[in-house]
């Protein structure tokens, strides 16, 4: 007669070995894929940071240029006023002769 109940067997079924190997392979693949995604996101973050810094630098350059143009326009307007005043004086002087 055989005893009923639990017993320990020293054999491992081939299906169990294959299942464990597939699970290990899937886990390794999943984490390798996740690592590449994280690396891609880090690279994008670095590129965006560099682009942001460059954009801010270009914006500052344009603001500086615009300021210089505005200053020059004010100077030109002042010069035109002086010339207009001189022309009025000349015209008045000719009129009074």
Summarize the structure.
It contains one helix and no strands. The chain is an all-alpha fold.
* Distance linking N and C termini: 148 Å
Total of DSSP H or I helical runs spanning 4+ residues: 1
Strand tally is 0
**Approximate helicity band:** over 70%
| H/E topology pattern | H
Q: Mean pLDDT score, rounded?
A: 88
Strand content: under 5%
Provide structural commentary:
With 97 residues, the chain is mainly alpha-helical. Helix content is 86%, strand content 0%. The chain has one helix at 14-96. The chain is rod-shaped, with a radius of gyration of 42 Å. The termini are far apart.
Blueprint of the fold:
Blueprint lengths: L13 H83 L1
Describe this protein with a few key phrases.
97 residues, mainly alpha
């Amino acid at each position: 007669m055989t005893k009923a109940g639990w017993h320990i067997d020293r054999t491992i079924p081939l299906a169990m070995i294959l299942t464990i190997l597939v699970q290990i392979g899937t886990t390794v693949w999943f984490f390798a894929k996740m690592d590449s995604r994280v690396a891609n996101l880090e690279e994008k973050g670095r590129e965006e940071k560099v682009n942001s810094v460059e954009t801010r630098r270009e914006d500052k350059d344009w603001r500086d240029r615009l300021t210089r143009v505005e200053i020059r326009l004010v100077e030109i307007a002042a010069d035109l006023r002086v010339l207009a005043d001189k022309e009025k004086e000349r015209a008045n002087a000719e009129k009074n002769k």
